[in-house]
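sry for the spam today, last one i promise. struct tokens for design, 298 residues
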């Protein structure tokens, strides 16, 4: 059979890791032909990764970015932003910095020593979430399993998450999402996806481990979620002393899935005010491929 006339070149990366088959998989498409929204969505659905990002050159060191999960488009996501910047560097398209024009606005990314660090264009903001008891019931836990200083809260830097700090790693490992129970609570929350955290070195320490359940974005569990880590900056500031806030945090994720990742989270400060969040990490290319452009529907 003759191959299709129009194809996409796809780069495959694992993000927030420095070794293949860990971290969060990502598909990157650079300078595709003009595609309709539905075509991009069908590509993401076919690849069935957490996200697929489409990049179109838009000036010097600037690219328009469209980010899709298998079921929806996102205004912002951390692991596609970090992975895309490192992919552009690998392709020789940028050197040192790039601005990705995303749904939340321009996202600047700097590159240094194989690490890409994005700065969110917005500061974390609190959003409404469900009653703590309902949140805990939906993840199969009770109120006694919460972190001693932090209850469930909704936070967002463009994509909202219900963030839940738990008392320890064993509690984090026992958590799971009862989707039917959670759906009963969605009318009370503006943060339908959940980001669970557990401390690794004390209740106010530097290192945390996370799990993300994303029913709203069509991801059962995610091995590395930069947008959630950025949202968690506002949440963790609630237990940070002055020095700890300036130093930021390191968040492990994906361990329970067998895809360990590491995300650095640092507040961008103006005095003591958080005006943005810096999210950093590595990525490694694991493959390339050619994909037929899906036909238009209708």
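last one done:
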């Amino acid at each position: 059979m003759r191959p299709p006339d129009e194809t996409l070149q796809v780069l495959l990366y694992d993000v927030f890791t420095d070794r293949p088959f860990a971290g969060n998989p990502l598909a990157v498409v650079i300078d595709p032909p003009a595609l309709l929204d539905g075509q991009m969505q069908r590509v993401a659905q076919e690849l069935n990764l957490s996200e697929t990002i489409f990049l179109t050159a838009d000036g010097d060191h600037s690219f328009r970015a469209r980010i899709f999960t298998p079921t929806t488009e996102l205004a912002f996501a951390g692991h596609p932003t970090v992975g895309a910047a490192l992919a552009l560097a690998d392709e020789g398209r940028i050197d040192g910095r790039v601005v990705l024009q995303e749904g939340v606005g321009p996202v600047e990314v700097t590159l240094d020593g194989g690490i890409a660090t994005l700065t969110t264009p917005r500061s974390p903001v609190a959003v409404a979430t469900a009653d703590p008891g309902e949140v805990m019931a939906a993840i199969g836990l009770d109120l006694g399993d919460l972190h001693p200083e932090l209850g469930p809260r909704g936070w967002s830097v463009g994509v909202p998450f219900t963030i839940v700090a738990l008392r320890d790693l064993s509690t984090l490992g026992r958590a799971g999402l009862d989707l039917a129970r959670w759906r009963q609570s969605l009318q009370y929350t503006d943060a339908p996806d959940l980001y669970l955290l557990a401390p690794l070195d004390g209740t106010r320490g530097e290192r945390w481990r996370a799990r993300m359940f994303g029913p709203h974005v069509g991801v059962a569990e995610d091995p590395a979620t930069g947008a959630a880590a950025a949202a968690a900056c506002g949440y963790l500031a609630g237990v940070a002393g002055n020095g700890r806030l300036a130093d930021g945090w390191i968040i492990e994720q994906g361990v329970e899935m067998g895809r360990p990742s590491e995300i650095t989270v640092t507040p961008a400060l103006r005095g003591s005010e958080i005006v943005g969040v810096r999210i950093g990490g590595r990525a490694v290319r694991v493959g390339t491929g050619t994909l037929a452009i899906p036909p238009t529907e209708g």
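The chain has a mean pLDDT of 94. ok im logging off now
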